[in-house]
Amino acid sequence: MVLFKEKTRCTVQDAFTPKVQKDPDTGETIKDEKGRPVKSMELDPLHLVTMVWLLQKKKDPNFSFEDAMNVPAVELDVQSPESDPKDVTN
Predict the structure, then answer these.
(1) Which of 85, 3, 75, 76 is nearest to 43 (CA)?
(2) How confident is the model over 46-69, as a mean pLDDT?
(3) Which among 1, 53, 56, 90 counts the fewest CB atoms within 10 Å?
(4) Residue 86 resides in a domain
(5) 58: helix, coil or strand?
(6) What is the pLDDT of residue 77?
(7) Is 58 a member of any domain?
(8) Number of C-beta neighbours around residue 44 at 10 A
């Protein structure tokens, strides 16, 4: 995904990896009831548009970045996992 990095200046993994939440007053890591760091996903619109562009470009080589910028957000089906796969017990 070299094109992703060229457009966003970060890797796909960095763009879509949840970040550890910090307390704005103390700077300390916020933890859940089990003492694990709480993570959140904040999508940068540029990252999302770039991903739309790359995925659509595979289907239609003429699909431009400008086309991706004009895709209404309501047409996107963005999902994140319901829970951490490490927490699932079999």
Answers:
(1) 76
(2) 94
(3) 90
(4) no
(5) helix
(6) 78
(7) yes
(8) 12
